[in-house]
Amino acid sequence: MSERIINILAKDDDLSKKILLELEDKLGEQGFITTRDFNKDAELSIVLGGDGSFLRSVHQNDFPEVPFVGFNTGHLGFFQELSIDDVDRFVEEYIAGEYRQESLHLIETNVSYEGGSERLLSVNEMVVKANNSKAVELDVFINSNYLERFFGDGLIVSTPVGSTAYNYSVRGSVVHPKLECLQITPLAPINSKAFRSLQNSLIVPPNFIVRLEPKKRYEGEIILLNDGEETIFKDVKYVEIDMNYKKIYRIVFAKDSYWNNLKDKFL
Ligand code: NAP
Ligand code: MN
Predict the structure, then answer these.
(1) Do 84 and 19 meet the contact criterion of CB atoms below 8 Å apart?
(2) Least C-beta-crowded within 10 Å: which of 59, 65, 93, 170?
(3) Are 45 and 79 in contact (CB under 8 A)?
(4) How far apart are CA 107 and CA 97, in angstroms?
(5) How far apart are the CA of 152 and the centre of ligand 1, in A?
């Protein structure tokens, strides 16, 4: 019989460490090999932490095929379905195969600047902002159709799972993860006689390309905030964002837990 490996990726705090030891014990007893480093041959990755820990595990391990499940030891834990009292139930139900697998579509950003280009993947969202808290001026095209010149703090392009993150804080809509679409949400849009842009968010089909052309202001620098990690780019020609064919996977135990989770976390 082949080895059954499970990655346990724990945040560095006392509670996460406690659950880590407990899981190592109980999964070990059941014949699993657990590892604290990411092993791509594992059948599952358990993340102990909050949403931030989940996002970092996904990015650091290059958006792996190995499915995820999370125990929430953080603040909000929207991605982290299980709580610290669920260890025994988790081991039991996991062994019995009483779970489903869901896939999450990533978004891909291609940024082209003087002298190069880069491709980035996001789970929650990509945010385009100006550097140094300036306002950013962006020409917005959807599938080559010019839509508007945006002027303001920036634009968020979020996935359905990302719709409850930054997008939600700026009054974007909550989108059920079964839908495949992108949401473009303005951050403090300036609306005046000089500038006019949509004030509400816009939802576009997954295979449409959102193209943002920054107008050169200040040093021509913009910030791309990818799932909370920022990078400054200089002399950007355009940023193109669309839904990627690449997915990540998570396993889910509860049936139709989405609405309960939403109520639990937000209301
Ligand atoms: P953070 O600053 O610690 O996260 C901000 C909050 O967003 C945390 O409470 C986090 O939950 C929560 N969160 C993350 N993904 C979520 C999701 N899909 N649905 C609901 N809530 C979610 O930074 P972080 O933990 O590294 O997370 C990065 C994310 O922060 C970014 O992707 C962005 O969406 C979000 N963010 C939000 C704002 C805002 O709302 N004004 C501003 C910047 C960034 P945990 O407490 O469990 O980590
Ligand atoms: Mn966090």
Answers:
(1) yes
(2) 65
(3) no
(4) 30
(5) 21
- Two tokens, residue 262: 């939403």
Residue type present at position 47:
V
10 Å Cβ neighbour count for 243? 23
| Nearest ligand by distance to the CA of 127 | 1
> Catalytic pick from 41, 51, 62, 153?
51
Q: For 169-218, what is each residue's pLDDT tens digit?
A: 999 999 999 999 999 999 999 999 999 999 999 999 999 999 999 998 76
Does residue 2 carry a pLDDT above 90? no
Lowest mean pLDDT among 90-99, 194-203, 215-224, 233-242: 215-224
User: Strand pairing of 100-113 and 68-72?
Assistant: unpaired
Higher per-residue confidence, 257 vs 230: 230
- Would you say the pTM of this structure is higher than 0.85? yes
86 is catalytic: no
List the structure tokens of 80. 């982290």
CB distance 212 to 187 below 8 Å: no
> What are the helix (H) ranges across the chain?
14-29, 51-60, 87-96, 166-169, 258-266
Ligand 1 pocket mutation, candidates 53, 56, 76, 264, criterion most atoms within 8 A of CB: 76
Using the structure block, give the residue that is written with the tokens 């100006």.
Answer: 130
Task: Kindly tell me if the per-residue pLDDT of 65 is higher than 90.
Answer: yes
